[in-house]
Protein backbone atom coordinates (compact mmCIF):
# COMPACT_ATOMS: atom_id res chain seq x y z
CA UNK A 1 0.00 0.00 0.00
CA UNK A 2 1.30 3.50 -0.75
CA UNK A 3 2.57 5.22 2.41
CA UNK A 4 3.47 1.90 4.02
CA UNK A 5 6.33 -0.58 3.88
CA UNK A 6 6.54 -4.33 4.67
CA UNK A 7 8.71 -6.09 7.23
CA UNK A 8 8.12 -9.80 7.87
CA UNK A 9 4.73 -9.81 6.11
CA UNK A 10 3.46 -6.79 8.04
CA UNK A 11 3.10 -3.31 6.51
CA UNK A 12 4.00 -0.32 8.67
CA UNK A 13 3.22 3.31 7.98
CA UNK A 14 6.18 5.35 6.79
CA UNK A 15 7.47 7.26 9.80
CA UNK A 16 7.47 11.05 10.05
CA UNK A 17 10.08 12.58 7.79
CA UNK A 18 9.54 9.96 5.08
CA UNK A 19 7.01 9.13 2.34
CA UNK A 20 6.32 6.36 -0.20
CA UNK A 21 4.34 7.21 -3.34
CA UNK A 22 3.94 3.76 -4.90
CA UNK A 23 2.57 0.34 -4.04
CA UNK A 24 5.18 -2.36 -3.43
CA UNK A 25 7.74 -3.52 -0.90
CA UNK A 26 10.25 -0.69 -1.39
CA UNK A 27 11.43 1.32 1.58
CA UNK A 28 10.09 4.76 2.41
CA UNK A 29 12.00 7.75 1.02
CA UNK A 30 13.45 10.41 3.30
CA UNK A 31 12.03 13.90 2.77
CA UNK A 32 14.30 16.40 0.97
CA UNK A 33 16.78 18.42 3.00
CA UNK A 34 15.26 20.87 5.53
CA UNK A 35 11.79 19.29 5.26
CA UNK A 36 9.73 16.85 7.31
CA UNK A 37 6.25 15.28 7.26
CA UNK A 38 3.90 16.21 10.07
CA UNK A 39 2.36 12.71 10.31
CA UNK A 40 3.17 9.06 9.59
CA UNK A 41 1.98 7.37 6.39
CA UNK A 42 2.57 10.14 3.85
CA UNK A 43 2.54 9.24 0.17
CA UNK A 44 3.82 12.32 -1.70
CA UNK A 45 6.99 14.40 -1.60
CA UNK A 46 4.87 17.57 -1.48
CA UNK A 47 3.63 16.43 1.95
CA UNK A 48 7.16 17.16 3.19
CA UNK A 49 7.00 20.71 4.57
CA UNK A 50 9.73 23.11 5.68
CA UNK A 51 11.29 22.59 9.11
CA UNK A 52 11.12 25.28 11.79
CA UNK A 53 13.51 28.09 10.84
CA UNK A 54 13.04 27.40 7.11
CA UNK A 55 10.58 28.72 4.53
CA UNK A 56 9.81 28.22 0.84
CA UNK A 57 10.90 31.20 -1.15
CA UNK A 58 8.45 31.96 -3.92
CA UNK A 59 6.38 29.07 -5.28
CA UNK A 60 5.38 25.75 -3.75
CA UNK A 61 8.05 23.82 -5.69
CA UNK A 62 10.88 25.96 -4.28
CA UNK A 63 13.38 24.45 -1.87
CA UNK A 64 13.21 25.35 1.80
CA UNK A 65 15.74 28.02 2.74
CA UNK A 66 16.77 29.28 6.19
CA UNK A 67 14.84 32.24 7.52
CA UNK A 68 16.85 35.40 6.86
CA UNK A 69 18.50 37.45 9.59
CA UNK A 70 15.84 39.39 11.59
CA UNK A 71 13.13 36.78 10.85
CA UNK A 72 11.99 33.51 12.47
CA UNK A 73 9.54 30.61 11.96
CA UNK A 74 8.58 28.45 14.95
CA UNK A 75 7.03 25.34 13.41
CA UNK A 76 6.75 22.98 10.47
CA UNK A 77 5.05 24.39 7.38
CA UNK A 78 5.62 26.25 4.14
CA UNK A 79 4.51 29.68 5.37
CA UNK A 80 6.86 32.65 5.21
CA UNK A 81 9.17 33.58 8.06
CA UNK A 82 7.95 36.33 10.41
CA UNK A 83 9.92 39.53 10.88
CA UNK A 84 11.22 40.44 14.32
CA UNK A 85 9.19 43.15 16.10
CA UNK A 86 10.19 46.82 16.22
CA UNK A 87 11.38 47.04 12.63
CA UNK A 88 15.05 47.66 12.01
CA UNK A 89 16.10 47.79 15.69
CA UNK A 90 15.78 44.00 16.15
CA UNK A 91 17.84 41.28 14.54
CA UNK A 92 18.71 37.63 15.06
CA UNK A 93 22.25 36.43 15.68
CA UNK A 94 22.03 33.86 12.87
CA UNK A 95 19.82 32.72 10.00
CA UNK A 96 17.26 30.01 10.69
CA UNK A 97 15.78 31.39 13.94
CA UNK A 98 12.85 29.34 15.28
CA UNK A 99 11.43 31.64 17.98
CA UNK A 100 10.68 35.32 18.54
CA UNK A 101 12.87 35.09 21.65
CA UNK A 102 15.84 34.85 19.25
CA UNK A 103 15.13 38.43 18.16
CA UNK A 104 17.56 40.72 20.00
CA UNK A 105 18.20 44.45 19.96
CA UNK A 106 20.79 45.71 17.50
CA UNK A 107 24.05 47.19 18.75
CA UNK A 108 23.36 50.62 20.27
CA UNK A 109 19.85 49.58 21.46
CA UNK A 110 18.46 47.64 24.45
CA UNK A 111 15.19 46.28 25.93
CA UNK A 112 13.96 48.24 28.95
CA UNK A 113 12.46 45.01 30.36
CA UNK A 114 12.48 41.31 29.54
CA UNK A 115 8.83 41.54 28.45
CA UNK A 116 9.37 44.54 26.17
CA UNK A 117 9.43 44.03 22.39
CA UNK A 118 10.65 47.59 21.87
CA UNK A 119 14.32 48.43 21.52
CA UNK A 120 15.40 51.77 22.98
CA UNK A 121 18.52 53.70 21.96
CA UNK A 122 21.36 53.59 24.48
CA UNK A 123 21.36 56.93 26.31
CA UNK A 124 24.10 59.51 26.04
CA UNK A 125 26.97 58.31 28.25
CA UNK A 126 26.44 54.64 27.32
CA UNK A 127 27.09 52.25 24.42
CA UNK A 128 26.34 48.65 23.37
CA UNK A 129 28.78 46.99 20.97
CA UNK A 130 26.86 43.84 19.95
CA UNK A 131 23.35 42.73 19.12
CA UNK A 132 22.05 40.95 22.24
CA UNK A 133 19.57 41.05 25.13
CA UNK A 134 22.21 42.89 27.22
CA UNK A 135 21.85 46.38 28.63
CA UNK A 136 24.01 49.30 27.53
CA UNK A 137 27.43 49.78 29.15
CA UNK A 138 28.15 53.06 30.91
CA UNK A 139 31.21 55.09 30.00
CA UNK A 140 33.74 55.46 32.81
CA UNK A 141 33.48 58.23 35.40
CA UNK A 142 33.98 61.71 33.89
CA UNK A 143 33.39 60.38 30.35
CA UNK A 144 30.34 60.45 28.10
CA UNK A 145 29.19 59.93 24.52
CA UNK A 146 28.11 62.86 22.39
CA UNK A 147 25.02 61.09 20.98
CA UNK A 148 22.58 58.25 21.73
CA UNK A 149 22.79 54.72 20.25
CA UNK A 150 26.59 54.44 20.29
CA UNK A 151 28.04 51.05 19.31
CA UNK A 152 31.71 51.28 20.37
CA UNK A 153 33.52 52.21 23.58
CA UNK A 154 35.64 54.64 21.57
CA UNK A 155 32.51 56.82 21.33
CA UNK A 156 33.10 57.64 25.03
CA UNK A 157 35.15 60.82 25.42
CA UNK A 158 36.37 62.74 28.43
CA UNK A 159 33.93 65.38 29.66
CA UNK A 160 34.83 69.06 29.62
CA UNK A 161 37.35 69.79 32.35
CA UNK A 162 38.88 66.28 32.14
CA UNK A 163 41.62 64.88 29.92
CA UNK A 164 43.43 61.62 29.40
CA UNK A 165 43.40 58.49 27.34
CA UNK A 166 39.96 56.94 27.48
CA UNK A 167 39.18 53.23 27.31
CA UNK A 168 36.66 50.87 28.88
CA UNK A 169 37.90 47.67 30.47
CA UNK A 170 35.10 45.19 29.72
CA UNK A 171 36.66 42.30 31.70
Chain-wise SSE layout:
Blueprint: E1 4-7, E2 10-13, E3 18-19, E4 29-30, E5 35-36, E6 49-50, E7 54-56, E8 64-66, E9 71-72, E10 82-83, E11 90-91, E12 104-105, E13 109-111, E14 119-121, E15 126-127, E16 137-138, E17 143-144, E18 157-158
Antiparallel strand pairs: 1-2, 3-4, 5-6, 7-8, 9-10, 11-12, 13-14, 15-16, 17-18
Can you walk through the features of this model?
There is one protein chain. With 171 residues, this protein is mostly beta strands. Helix content is 0%, strand content 26%. The strands form 9 sheets. Strands 1-2 form a two-stranded antiparallel ribbon. It is rod-shaped, with a radius of gyration of 25 Å. The mean pLDDT is 89.
Features:
two-stranded antiparallel sheet, 0% helix, 26% strand
Mean pLDDT: 89
How many DSSP E strands? 18
Helix share, percent = under 10%
Intertermini distance: 64 Å
Which structural class is indicated by helix and strand composition? mainly beta
Low-confidence stretches: none
The number of helical elements comes to 0
Largest sheet descriptor: 2 strands, antiparallel
Element-by-element helix/strand order: EEEEEEEEEEEEEEEEEE
Shape: rod-shaped
Amino acid sequence: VAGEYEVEEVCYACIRGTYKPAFGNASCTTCPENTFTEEDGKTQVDECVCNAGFSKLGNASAVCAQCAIATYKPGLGNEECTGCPDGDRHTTLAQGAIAQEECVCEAGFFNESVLSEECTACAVGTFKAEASHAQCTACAENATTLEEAQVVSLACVCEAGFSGVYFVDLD
